[in-house]
Design brief:
By secondary structure, this protein is of the alpha+beta class. The chain has seven helices and eight strands, in the order αβααββααββαβαββ.
Length: 207
């Protein structure tokens, strides 16, 4: 695995203020996207840094193919770039999400005060990954703002996102939900690769 060198703090600030651009991912991005996924998706999970559940380093061909499939088929697969890619976000429309997760709505233990009319028209932010060592620099927020702009244009009403709290809590993801003013909608259990995960399900209205 090759991971690009981390830029200086001064360059980070300049990128965030002036130069970082968000665009839809393309096929030629797959190797850079994979490197970022591998930097935060390995056998080592760091709650404070944030992590992806899968160990991308375990099978490069498999995970590159999965990423490429997402690039080719999803409407909301974005990268943040200046000269190279620093982070990405994968989000699913309701139809795309339920195609892969047909029982998701039924599997969520919805909060009693959650208005279920919000599940009529939604998107699920599945993965947000920033190059290891660069979390907390605002890169995820820049991608998120781009997503919001596109959702307003196409009429999507609600964003859902999940955060793992067990067996290893993703503290960085929880902090991001708080920063973006998400509200807890419910929770669900997921048996994935012979491990039982507990996910908090958050929502945010697209205003």
């Amino acid at each position: 695995m090759v991971v690009a060198n981390k830029p200086s703090v001064e360059l980070n600030s300049f990128l965030l203020r002036k130069l970082l651009k968000v665009r839809k991912a393309k096929k030629s991005d797959v190797h850079q996207i994979y490197n970022i996924a591998s930097s935060v998706g390995s056998s080592t999970k760091i709650p404070e840094q944030g992590f992806l559940v899968d160990d991308y380093t375990s099978n490069p061909r498999l995970y590159k193919n999965k990423l490429l499939n997402g690039i080719n088929n999803l409407n909301h697969f974005y990268v943040a770039e200046y000269e190279r890619i620093y982070g990405f976000m994968i989000a699913y429309s309701k139809e795309e999400w339920l195609k892969d997760n047909p029982n998701w709505i039924e599997d969520v233990y919805w909060s009693p005060d959650f208005d279920k009319s919000r599940i009529d028209n939604f998107i699920v932010v599945d993965k947000t990954a920033i190059q290891a060592g660069l979390t907390g620099q605002g890169i995820g927020s820049i991608i998120y703002k781009h997503l919001l702009k596109n959702l307003k244009e196409n009429g999507t009403k609600t964003i859902f996102a999940e955060t793992i709290i067990s067996p290893i809590p993703n503290f960085a993801s929880l902090q991001f939900r708080k920063k973006q003013k998400y509200t807890l909608a419910g929770m669900r259990y997921e048996d994935y690769n012979n491990t039982l995960y507990t996910d908090l399900v958050y929502y945010k209205d697209v205003l």
